[in-house]
Design goal:
The protein is an alpha+beta fold. It is built from 6 helices and 16 strands. β1 and β2 form a beta hairpin.
Length: 274
């Protein structure tokens, strides 16, 4: 039987039940910035196209009552599956985009880190069996592939990368290397129903530079869900100002965050990339 391992969000909701808010860290104190990378299919060429995919959940009869954003998340993951670095392994049999070369830098205060050298991959851990980050239709009560049934074997990969000890305060995240044949497209945060990430004041441009203030995030962890579109960076409408948050990739995991925290399973010791 597949398991949900919540390692990406430290606070969340369980089917609409909000977690208690917590105070954020003071400026300069260490926090975590996480990046989950997605590659969209060729039909998505702009922010408007991406939002149309999110809106498709409203036409699915299995959209969950109470947390409809889970459906929007499933739609975007199907259209823009998660991709991992060459040499890293995604969850077997889960929907994903495979391996690609890409890189990010994170700058905050006097700190500067690079994804390919300084992050922890969600598939690495201190145990003999690799930890897998994924969610299945049965976990989110959503018919993602629209075959008329909610299956326990139709699953979505949620592999990601964690930058640790990032000083709280103004943060700049830059996509320095995009997967071949793609360009930076758009970004999502965990929406306000599940987290206070929306308070960080996220902004981004078509060059792939993302800015926010992590000190405004109460749980000391900000998750960025970065989507790339197929095509050259010079194509128009590659990115635009962030709309009102209505979707985020780890929503499926976040929905189970409170339950996992109660069980003491919300944090797993990881090995740092060498």
């Amino acid at each position: 039987m597949r398991r949900i391992l919540v390692t990406l969000v430290s606070t969340g909701m369980l089917l609409g039940l909000a977690a208690l808010p917590v105070a954020g860290a003071a400026a300069g104190e260490p926090a975590t910035v996480m990046v989950m990378k997605h590659l969209c299919d060729e039909s998505i060429q702009s922010e408007a196209d991406f939002m149309e995919v999110e809106a498709k959940a409203a036409t699915n009869e299995e959209t969950p009552m109470g947390v409809p954003s889970l459906g929007s998340t499933a739609e975007t993951v199907l259209a823009c599956p998660v991709v991992v670095l060459t040499g890293d392994t995604q969850t077997p049999d889960a929907i994903g985009s495979g391996e690609q070369d890409f890189d990010f830098t994170v700058e905050a205060g006097d700190s500067s880190q690079t994804l390919t050298t300084d992050t922890t991959f969600s598939g690495e851990n201190g145990f003999d069996t690799p930890v897998e980050d994924f969610a299945c239709e049965s976990d989110i009560a959503y018919d993602a592939n629209r075959n008329g049934t909610i299956d326990k074997d139709v699953c979505l990969d949620f592999s990601s990368y964690a930058f640790a000890d990032v000083p709280e305060g103004p943060v700049t995240v830059t996509e320095t290397t995009a997967p071949e044949g793609t360009r930076f497209g758009t970004v999502r945060l965990t929406p306000p129903e599940l987290s206070d990430d929306a308070a960080v004041g996220l902004a981004f441009d078509a060059s792939g530079e993302i800015t926010f203030d992590s000190s405004l995030d109460g749980d000391e962890m900000t998750m960025l869900h970065v989507y790339n579109f197929v095509g050259e960076a010079s194509m128009p409408d590659a990115a635009m100002e962030l709309p009102t948050p209505n979707s985020s990739l780890p929503l499926m995991l976040a929905a189970f965050g409170t339950l996992a925290a109660a069980a003491g399973a919300a944090v797993v010791i990881r090995q740092t990339r060498s």
